Amino acid sequence: MGYVEAIILGFIQGLTEFLPVSSSGHLELAKVILGADSLPSDSLTFTVILHAATALSTVVIFRMEILTILKGLLQFKWNEETQFSLKIIASMIPAALIGFYFEDQLESLFGGQIVLVGFMLIVTSLLLLFADKAQRTDKEVNFGNAFIIGVSQALAMLPGISRSGATISSAVLLGVDRTKAAKFSFLMVVPLIMGKISKDIIGGEISLESSQIGVYAAGFLAAFISGLFACTWMISLVKRSKLSYFALYCAIVGTIAIGYSLM
Is the pTM of this model over 0.70? Predict the structure, then answer.
């Protein structure tokens, strides 16, 4: 993989991690189009690096909220920050369990499964349409909602199901305030990504080749910068109920992907 492919894939990851169009699905499609199929170990390492970049962009955007949460936790009281942190933990449980017990099965779904990606993008499109029609969205995220949103996040481990699209749509359909739904969706994935990265590093599944350091860095920067833009933009779009545009986009791309694979 060269610098151009790395930057393109990084840019796609940064945008699609936050926009409700499935980063995993778009990366799979991009790899097919660019012919950027590398060895599985190299592919995993690069994917982890891109996810670390978007996690960092989330931390930068929500740095004040994260600092407030940390300060609240250090008070060791049953306050709003402690409750929010426990809700984040509750939302992580479904994805953590599925990732732990079905990691090999999930990895087998990545690597040119374009038909699956196409159908899952259409599912994402339907979720976004339903969410865009939701009328009453003025509730806070409670513990029950957090777990249900976490189930949506677990389903989004399938390539083509948008994580942000599934979690935000679920929250909005549950009546959660749109802006709060978007913020919760973006913050809930940070500890999950960090846990995944730590697991892969400890397990020795990530190997950084010195010859590829520059390529990895280019992809990381592209994902980080585009992630900063996409995260801010997405919060504004959700607040203004503009998810139907992304629903149409996912439906079109999904249909094209299915047609391409059948040809």
Answer: yes
